[in-house]
Write the structure tokens for this entry.
Amino acid sequence: MNIKEAGHLLAGIITKCEAEYIEAHLEESEASHLTYRGKDLESVDKTGAVGGNVRVLVNGGWSFVSFNNLEDLETKVKQAIEQAKFVSGGEAKILQYPPIVDKTKAEIRQNPVNIPLKEKKQILDEYNQVIWEVPKLQTSVIGYADGYRKYIYMNSVGSYIEQERADVTLRVGAIATEKGEVQQAGISLGSRGEFSAIKGLHNQIRDMAQNAVKMLSAPQAKGGEYTVVLDPILAGVFVHEAFGHLSEADHVYENPQLRELMTMGKTFAGKQLNIVDGAAVPGLRGSYKYDDEGIPAQKTYLIKEGVLTGRLHSRETAARMKEKLSGNARAVSYRFPPIVRMTNTYIEPGKTSFKEMIADIKEGIYVKNWYGGTTSMEMFTFSAGEAYMIRNGQIAEMLRPVVLTGNVFSTLKNIDAIGNDLDMNEGGGCGKAGQSPLPVSNGSPHIRIQRCLIGGK
Amino acid sequence: MEEILELARKFAEEAEVYTVSTEEAPVHFEANRLKAIQSKQSTSVSLRLIKNGKLGYAAASGEIDARKLVDIAVETSEFGMPAQFSFPSERNFPQVNILDPEVETVSIGEMIELGQKLIDPVLKSTEGILCDAGVSRDSVTLSVANTRGGQAQYKKTTFGMGVSGTLVRDTDMLFVGDGQESCHPLRDTKALTDIVLHQLELARNTAGVTSGQMPVIFTPDGVVSAFLPALMSAFNGKTVLLGASPLDKRLGETVFDKRFSLFDDPTLDFAPNSRPCDDEGTVSRRTALVEKGTVKNFLYDLQTAGQAKKQSTGNGSRGRGGLMSPAPSAWIVSPGETAFEDMVKDIKEGLLIEQLMGAEQGNVLGGDFSGNVLLGYKIENGKITGRVKNTMVSGNVYQILKDLAGIGKETKWIGGGVCAPALYCANLSVASK
């Protein structure tokens, strides 16, 4: 049985059941991966998966059953309803939405999974060659992945949405060593299924590899507070980690103190700051037409002119907080229930050029690129892949990569310049509640932050 | 499974089929209340084959079409790495106890009760705290068979529970929590909640820190968050093979403090990461990685061992997508001789760190780390005086572990993957604002 046949069966079953609300997902996916470690192609694989889930809301609590055989769907629905009886007295509820029946396409020229392995290998071989031409390079790591997913969402009020999406990601890393010292540099990028996005990166990859070597002789930053300028990639990570997660309503709705802290209309930053999240922004890795609860995608201003104006919601959090749906309920696969997630998150461009931004900095740090970032709501840390001193308005010597940390609220207030050069980074994958990696994009123009804490000697 | 193996044999010299079926039943509490009950079932099959001396791979979950699986594996083998090993023909494995049928008899009702017992004392202790809790029972059935006659199959049960609390006051947030895992059912909620209550007690006051060099104690949880990312990459045979491990070429050298020993051990009875064999059917064994400060071994799977001209240590693990690579089973850091209280007493001004955030983001390979103290306390004149905030700790794992001021004599399991004592470092760089 394929998911189409199973879908029609399942829709018939759930619309007949007695429960407050039932929704179901079915999914068919395929993927391919190519990994290089060192000079050789280390592994190539192709995988396929089929599966689904049923989620039931009863007595204010959720029951969830996931499976990966499509037989005997009725028993699975029954199991979910039975199991739900254990949950009682909870406060879960959802916002209803008029039923939608629709079909969307992946909108790509070619399914990336079907591109011959030979063609993928050819491009990656070239990139690896570029890295290995750089002296003092110890090794390289390349990870390419693509995927294609067909999925069906349905619920007990009659929605039936068939969607398709494709995804391509590439991560390239170079590792340089000298006298027991190890330094690494990397880039990561991706696209919503368009394979051409990973072509023609030779120069970028050469620069990256050369940077890994240069870092070997770079000094470590002295720990402390600095005026810091972030490039669009790192600023994008910052906005995702530091503010995006805090805008996810599931972190806020059960927490009275946090709710108060995140009251709409509160001023968080200077007038020049606008932060957006939205799957309706087209063509990016976080774009889609409907979220995994069948809600149409939107574009939400989280911060407008420095003031908190929006939040990311699922049906449940919107109902609980009595706010508007935003279409942000997403699941990485059928094995998980949808939860509130970001999509495409970015700081809107301002008017300052990069040159103006660094012109009056006597001593500061310019941070570029990223290794990663995590947040614990109030505190965040993110790692720059590259760092340079700024001295007297000029980019000066290279530093070892640095980690930046701070309190979200004071850091947002300390953003005092926003560049005119918005750039989106599509190489990221977001993790939350065991669901990882979720395709997202984030971006920003260059931004300047006063008094940012940098770890170091 | 037999069918796939038979079919693969027609197209390739060697083949291996790996299947894993899991059943998970987590119960989840959010914001002090029962929130969701889940049950998850999944089965997946991976096929690895050697054709013309090269490795091919395919995997599927859900509907398994043997022919398609073989075709894909044959297609990928065209680009595959030359296989540097033969599949093991082992059929007999040591007895490692990892199945307790009682786990599967724990009812959802009992699990809900346990969750409530995890939350209640924490809730009662601190006004305004929000607790999440989880109780889960899982079982996994795994089998691996190859065309050289090797065959292994086992079933494992695991039971886990955890509780966490979040306390928000103005823009200040405090996170506490702990968890436990076993192959047996767990019932002692008090052991866990006592730890959390103690964290809350210590965090009641806030203490200021001045930037500079100072002594730092890492609790077992702190050891995991600060040191483990670097060590796990350095002892991975693959990192070593690529020359990217700082421990490469230092086998047999005393790189660490003479009191520091580290083992990879998948043979401990009822430990959640234990197993009779690894994911490619190699017999499980205890591997010394560091013994009394000396680097003894690295972790290998078959292919990496073949390339490095070593033996597999039984650490073949199927990661995401099912591809094989060496990975730790459970890491055991040997206890030392210093009582935790004595470490604290020894410090005039320093820190005690339970959770460091972001240490895995730095230059992991080189061992440099720099993390924000998510949960940590100030020590003054031999006493813990309060929680520290807005504080970053930086250092180098290898420099720290070369010269420790002390190793704790008590150890603690963190999740199912690490058992470690507290480590006492004489001098670390701390930045605070």
